[in-house]
């Protein structure tokens, strides 16, 4: 892990956890009901860092693959063994270990994680979106109104789990409920074909949808490219895990890339991809894989370190989807924004104390 070589590792410990969702999140690819993962604690010669590995198959490796990868690292407990992890095939495991190491390094330098990762002055707060899972048009309307009442100015609707006509009715209901000043985006999780996506685009233009996330299967980069330039931006998410980001860039497949640090193999890889995208005038949105608090706060720091001065709302407001959490969340959401902890590291002692449990 290159610049982290100055840290002398004393121990790497892993602690499994299971968290239930407060209610299943219905997506086009099925319901998500619980999250299982590992807290990773790294003790170095002068700091303790904490990370999280919470795999989500379809975006990352399986739970068992993640478990095996982390077990091998914890047994050896060296930076060399951590660096040898297969980032491509065990991205969640790599994320957990790298997040712990960069947290320790940021603490070593007495800086926030965002400050340690950023090439410029990081943001002090990040706009975030509310998420509405698959539901009826009437439920969509009520949940959209509730999100606005809670201060959100950007709302993402999960689509693709029902007939296209019903999803069109849902976005019309949402726009009617929240007015013209709220940003709406949708996420189809790659289940549509091109004809269905084109049909939805007509309604999306009419109700001013900001972007459609992953309308087509992850491998169909040319199809995504063909949907661009029609009045609604196209974003890719699953494609970022199923293909190489360079392929996405070369195909001209996206106006926006949706980056999950857990799926890309850690904070630094995520920011490297975002900087390449920025050069190509492609925006980056940071989201979680419905992670526990450690990875959520890590993703918030990554979002704060993104290039550019006018970030789109990120998908980080997912803590309320969990029925319980690993520890108290040190970050609150006010008027649709999350304040970035000042550190040192992830959040001072608020999260590293977990390693003392």
TrEMBL record:
Pathway: Quinol/quinone metabolism; menaquinone biosynthesis; Quinol/quinone metabolism; 1,4-dihydroxy-2-naphthoate biosynthesis; 1,4-dihydroxy-2-naphthoate from chorismate: step 4/7
Catalytic activity: (1R,6R)-6-hydroxy-2-succinyl-cyclohexa-2,4-diene-1-carboxylate = 2-succinylbenzoate + H2O
SUPFAM superfamilies: Enolase C-terminal domain-like, Enolase N-terminal domain-like
Biological process terms in GO annotation: menaquinone biosynthetic process
Cofactor: a divalent metal cation
Entry binding sites for Mg(2+): 187, 213, 237
Keywords: Lyase, Magnesium, Menaquinone biosynthesis, Metal-binding
Ranges where the Mandelate racemase/muconate lactonizing enzyme C-terminal domain occurs: 137-234
EC number(s) from the headed UniProt entry: 4.2.1.113
One GO molecular-function entry: magnesium ion binding
Active site per the UniProt annotation: 158, 260
Transmembrane segments: none
Gene3D superfamilies: Enolase-like C-terminal domain, Enolase-like, N-terminal domain
Function in brief: Converts 2-succinyl-6-hydroxy-2,4-cyclohexadiene-1-carboxylate (SHCHC) to 2-succinylbenzoate (OSB).
Annotated family: Belongs to the mandelate racemase/muconate lactonizing enzyme family. MenC type 1 subfamily.
Protein name: o-succinylbenzoate synthase
Gene symbol of the encoding locus: menC
């Amino acid at each position: 892990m290159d610049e982290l070589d100055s840290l002398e590792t004393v121990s790497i410990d892993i602690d499994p956890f299971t968290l239930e969702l407060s209610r299943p999140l219905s997506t086009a690819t099925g319901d998500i009901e619980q999250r299982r993962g590992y807290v990773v604690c790294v003790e170095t010669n002068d700091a303790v860092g904490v990370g999280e590995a919470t795999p989500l198959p379809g975006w990352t490796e399986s739970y068992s693959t993640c478990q095996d990868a982390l077990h091998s690292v914890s047994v050896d407990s060296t930076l060399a063994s951590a660096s040898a992890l297969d980032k491509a095939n065990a991205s969640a495991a790599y994320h957990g270990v790298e997040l712990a190491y960069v947290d320790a390094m940021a603490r070593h330098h007495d800086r926030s994680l965002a400050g340690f990762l950023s090439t410029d002055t990081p943001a002090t707060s990040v706009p975030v979106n509310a998420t509405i899972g698959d539901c009826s048009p009437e439920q969509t309307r009520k949940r959209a109104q509730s999100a606005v009442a809670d201060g959100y100015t950007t709302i993402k609707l999960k689509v693709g789990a029902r007939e296209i006509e019903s999803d069109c009715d849902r976005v019309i209901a949402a726009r009617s409920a929240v007015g013209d000043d709220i940003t709406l985006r949708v996420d189809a999780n790659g289940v549509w074909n091109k004809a269905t996506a084109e049909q939805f685009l007509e309604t999306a233009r009419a109700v001013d949808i900001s972007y459609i996330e992953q309308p087509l299967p992850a491998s169909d980069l040319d199809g995504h490219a063909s949907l661009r330039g029609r009045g609604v931006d196209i974003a890719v998410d699953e494609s970022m895990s199923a293909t190489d980001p360079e392929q996405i860039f070369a195909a001209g497949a996206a106006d926006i890339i949706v980056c999950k640090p857990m799926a890309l193999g850690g904070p630094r890889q995520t920011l490297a991809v975002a900087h390449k995208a920025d050069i190509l005038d492609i925006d980056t949105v940071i989201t979680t894989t419905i992670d526990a608090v450690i990875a959520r706060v890590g993703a918030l720091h990554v979002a704060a370190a993104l290039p550019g001065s006018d970030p789109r709302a990120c998908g980080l407001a997912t803590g309320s989807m969990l029925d319980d959490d690993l520890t108290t969340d040190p970050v609150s959401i006010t008027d649709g924004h999350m304040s970035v902890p000042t550190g040192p590291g992830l959040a001072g002692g608020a999260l590293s104390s977990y390693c003392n449990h």
